[in-house]
Design brief:
Blueprint lengths: L4 E6 L4 E10 L4 H15 L3 E12 L1 H17 L2 E5 L3 H10 L6 H13 L6
Parallel strand pairs: 2-3, 3-4
Antiparallel strand pairs: 1-2
Length: about 120
């Protein structure tokens, strides 16, 4: 697995992009916390976009950091968006509500609802 790294760039006039790449297991949470703090400082009152297109894996400690960031954005009236998550990373984040569930999961859920007979009543 690739070592975790975070890169902060300006994404338009009012958005800051924090690109996460590699393995975000337990050891990576201090770096993610520092990077997210810097992203918020640079964003001012704008939006923080978390780009996870190159994130290979994520542990509970790093998910917690992202949830704290979401709460901070809500309380501060800022935008906060998680993009590009895929595979198991997206599945883990979907449980928290940080991103939409994968299309396959939504399809499976819909098919289960359709296949379930209505209760007689």
């Amino acid at each position: 697995m690739e070592e975790a790294r975070c890169v902060i760039t300006r994404d338009g006039r009012s958005a800051i992009r924090l690109a996460m790449a590699g393995d975000f297991g337990r050891a990576a949470h201090p770096e993610l916390r520092r990077s997210l703090r810097r992203a918020f400082e640079r964003a001012g009152r704008g939006t923080v976009v978390i780009d996870m297109a190159e994130t290979e894996s994520i542990g509970s400690e790093c998910i917690e950091v992202l949830l704290v960031g979401y709460t901070r954005a809500l309380r501060g009236g800022m935008g906060y968006e998680v993009t590009g998550a895929h595979g198991p990373v997206r599945q883990a984040l979907a449980v928290t509500g940080l991103c939409e569930p994968p299309v396959d999961d939504m399809f499976d859920s819909l098919m289960a609802m359709i296949a379930t007979p209505e209760s007689a009543g």
